[in-house]
Design a protein that fits this description.
Elements: H1 8-11, E1 25-26, H2 35-40, H3 50-57, H4 65-69, E2 72-73, H5 75-81, H6 111-121
């Protein structure tokens, strides 16, 4: 795999292969079925596609169509930000002080709340992560 994808600088993670895939693809071509993943992470009420999920988990919530058209994603970032991601089990709400204990239940950060957190605190928060 030559070069790096559009998410290497944003997430700080290294590009690479994953699940037998080695080539970067255009972000706009990411359209796998993610309905079971959304249900597992208590986001089944969201009407989003794989591309939107990847962008939201990277904290890229407000991009133009022109910017999206030029983006690529490597298999490592596609799967760790997309349908194979595992949300942290502790509270991810910024400025939440207190003991970092495991959170259970269905209270997760949805797409709307992730946008609000980004606007208020200037920090990206993983969609599907716990909030209490």
């Amino acid at each position: 795999m030559a070069g790096s994808c559009s998410f290497s600088a944003v997430t700080g993670g290294a590009c690479g292969s994953s699940r037998g895939f080695i080539d970067c693809v255009a972000l706009n071509s990411c359209d796998d079925d993610i309905s079971s993943h959304l249900q597992k992470h208590h986001l089944s009420r969201e009407n989003v596609c794989e591309k939107d999920l990847i962008l939201a988990r990277a904290g890229l919530l407000e991009l133009t169509e022109e910017q999206l058209k030029n983006m690529t994603v490597c298999p490592a970032h596609r799967f760790t930000l997309g349908k194979y991601s595992q949300a942290p089990k502790t509270c991810q709400y910024p400025k939440h002080h207190g003991k970092k204990t495991a959170v259970t239940g269905t209270h997760v950060i949805n797409f709307k709340l992730a946008r609000e957190i980004k606007n208020i605190f200037g920090e990206a928060t993983a969609v599907g992560s716990r909030k209490f």
